[in-house]
Hints:
This protein is α/β, with parallel strands linked by helices. Helix content is 60%, strand content 8%. Helix 18 runs antiparallel to helix 19 (539-553), helix 21 (587-610) runs antiparallel to helix 22 (619-635) and helix 27 (712-725) packs parallel to helix 30. The protein starts with a helix and ends in a 7-residue tail after the last helix.
Amino acid sequence: MQTGTEATRVGQLSLSLLGGVRLDRDGAPVTGKSVQRRRLAILVVLVRAPQRQLERERILGLLWPDHPPAAARRLLNEAVYVLRRELGAGIIATVGDAIRLDGAVKCDADEFVTAVAEKRLDDALALYEGEFLGAWYLRDAVDFERWVDGERSGLSQVFSQTLAVAADAAEARGDWVRSSHYRLRQVRMDKSSSGAVERAAYALAKAGEGAAALDVIDRHRALLQAEYEADLPPSLSALASDIRAARLAPARAVAPADAAEGGAAPTRARHEPAGTEPASVVPAELASVPEQAAPSATSSHAPIVPRRGWMRRALPAGAFVGVVAIGTLVPSQWRPAVSESRGASDAFRIVIEPFSVDGDTAGIAYVAEGISHQLTATLKRVGGVQVAGTDVSPGVLRRAERGGTAALDLQITGAVSGGPDGVRVSVRVLDRAGAQVGSAQVSARRGDPVTLTDDLSAQLDVSLRDQLGERRSLAALRRSQRDAGESEHAMDLVWRAQGLVRAAAAARATPLSDGADRLLGRADSMLSVAEFDAPNWVVPTLERAWLARLAGSLRSGEARVRALDVGLGHADRAIARYTSTSADGRAAGWRAGQAEAYWVRGQLRTDAATAVQTYRREEDLLRGAEADLLTATSIDSLLAGAWASLGMLRWVRGDIPGAILATQRALALDGYLENADRIIDFAVRALIALADRRAALTWCQRGRRMFPADWRYVECELSVMYIDAGGGGAPPDPVRAWALVDTLTRMDPDSVAAASGRPYSPIYRRMVAAIVSAAAGDVPRARQEYALAEVRVRQSAELTNDLRFDAAHLAFVLRDSAAAEVRLAEYVRARPDLAALVRNDRTTAQFRRLAGRPTRP
C-alpha cells in the first residue's frame, strides 16, 4: 500500500522532451538520483512507446547494449527501483516481462501531437520549443541515438507541416502578419529552401513589410552565391522585382488574430507560391509519429543542395554542362534524406566558444564574430555533428551548459589578433578532457574576412575529420562485432590491424617502402588470426581485401596485379559468406557489410583492369566492377566510398558526365571526409577532361586548402595547364608551370613517388611543364625535356607507354600531327580500355585543333 509520504512524493510529474530533457514535479525541477541520465532515459522511451509500455529486452538493447544480459538486467532493475523510490511506487508498473509508465505523467511531445490532431494549431506551435531531446544524449548507446533520430525526424516533420497549415489558414482569413511569422519559422528550419523563402517574402510583402521581404530574399541570394554559387530561382527574382516596383500591393485590412480559422482561400496573386492548400483535417498518421518519418514534403521547392556533406561548395558553376548548383546536378532520386540515422547515431557534440580579440579591437571584432558564425554554420551542415555556437538560441545554450562538460565531445576556441595591415586567427580544438587534438592558424589582409573564413574552415575540416572519422570507425566496428556475437579479442585484433594499416599508408610517403610492407604484413597476420577466432564475423575478411588493395598501390606492373588478385580472393570469400547466410535480425548491419563487400570487390576489379597495359580489352573486369559498385550502392545508397569508386570507374571508361555525377553524390554523402581527397582528385580529372578550366582550378584550390600537405593539389594546378597549352584556357605560363614542378619535387620527391607505386609521376610533371613551354614558344626547352624523359622510361615498357600520351600532346603543340596521332594510337593499342577516355577527352580535341587537324568523333 502506498504511504502518504510516497503519495506526496509523486505529485504531478511532467516530462519535457522538446528542446531538451527536463522532469518537473508540480512545476519545479526534480533533482536527485532519479534524473541520472540512464534512469531518465527509461522514462523517455516509455513515454513515447505505444501504451507507454515496452518489453524489458527492448529497453536493455536501447540503453545497455554493451553489457552482458545479466548485468544489463541488474542495472535496469536498480534503475526501476530508484525511480519508484524517488518518484513514487506507482510511477512504473511491471506487466509480465514488460514495463509500463503511469499514464498520468504529462509529456509535452504527446501534448504537441494531440494539439495537432485536434487542430489547435496555436497550442501546438507554442508547445514545440525545439527538436526532440535537443542536445541531450547518452554515451555508448547507439541504438538509443538511432531511436532518438527517428523520433526527432518525425516530430520535426509534424511541426513543419503544422507551420504550413497554420500559415495557410492565417492567409485564408487575411492575417498576413501572423502568416509571415509562421513562414519565417519555416525559413529558419530550412534556410536552403527557395520555396520557403518565396512564401515568407510574399507573406511579408502582403503584410506591408516590403523592406523585410527584400531583406529575406537578399540574404537567401547571398547564401546561394556564397555556399553553392547558384542564382536565385526566376520566380523569386520576379517577386523581388515586383516588391521593389510596388507592383505587389499590401493587404492592409487584416482580420483579427483571434478570428475563426477557415473560410475560402483568397485567389492567389501572380507571385503567390503554389504550396499545399490549407488542410481541412490533419492527416491521421500525424497523431502517432513513426519511428523513421520521411522528410517534410510541404515545401513546393526542393532544397538547393542536399544537407549532407562537409564541403561548403560542391561542383562550381560551369562544372558540368553549365550546371551551377548541386540541386540541378544530382537527380532528385539521388538526394540524401534530410537526416541520416547512421550519422546521428554516432553524433559528435561540438561547442564553438566566442573568439577572443587582441589588438585593434574596434577594427577586427567583426572578424571574430563573423568567423564564429561561419564555423557554426559550416559544422552544422556535417552529418553526425550537433553544434552549439553563436547562432543558437539562448535556451539551447543554457541546456548545453546544464549538461556540463560531459555532454561535449569537442570544444573549439579561437583568438583573433591584428593591426592596421592584417588579421591573424588561431584556433584550438579540445577534447572533453581539455587536451588539444587539433589546431589551425591563418592570416589574411584586413578587409578580407571571406578569405579568412574559407581558409580557416578548410584547415579545420582536416583537423576535425580525423576525430570524427576515427570515432565513427570504432563505433561501427563495435556494432558489427556485437551483431556477430564474436569476442572482444577478435575486435581488438581488427582495431590494432587497422592502426597498422593507417601507419603503413603514412609510411609509403617515405623512400623506405619496405617499412610499409612490414606493417602490412603484421596487420594481415592479425586479421588472419581474427578470421580464425571469429568465424561468423566477415569484417576481418573485408579488412584483408582492403589491405591487399593498399599493398597493390605500393607496387607496379605484375607485382601490383598479384597483390590485387589476393584482395579479390578475400572479397569473393566475403561476398560468398554474405550470400550463404541471412540477416538473422541484424538487417541494418548485415546489409551494410554486404554493401561494403561488393564495394571493395568493385574497386579491386577496377584497379586490376587498369594496373598494367595488356594490349587486350579488360571489358569483363570493368563490367564486373560496375555491376559490383551498382550493387553496393543499391544495397546502401548512402555509401559514399562506393559512389566515389563508381566515379573513378566511369572516368576510366570515358563517361565523364557520369563520373562527375557519381563523385558529386559521393561528396554530398561523405560527412566525415573519409574519401574527400580521392573524390576531389577524380572530380578534377573529369573536369580537366571536359576542358573546364575554371571549375577544375576552383576544385584544386579548395583541395589545397583542405589538404595543404597533399602534393596532389599542387599537381592538380599543373594539370589544369594542359587546357592552357591546348589553347582552351589562359595564356601558357611556363614560369608558373616550372615553379609548380619545383614545389612538387620538394613535396613528393622522385624516390618517394617510386616507392609509392607512382614511378611515372615525376616524368609526367616535367612533361606537362615542357608542353606549356612549347605552347609559349620555348621549343628547345620542350625538346630537351622530352629527350630526358625518353631516357628515364627506356627500361620500362609501362613507363614508355605512359609517355606516349604526353608525347602526343607535345607533338600537337609542335604542329607534328602525324607523329601525335601515331603515339596516341600506340597508347590506345596498349591500353584499349582507355580508348573512350582518350576519345572523350576535350583537351586532346583542343590539341588537335591547335595542330590544325579537325576533331575526331
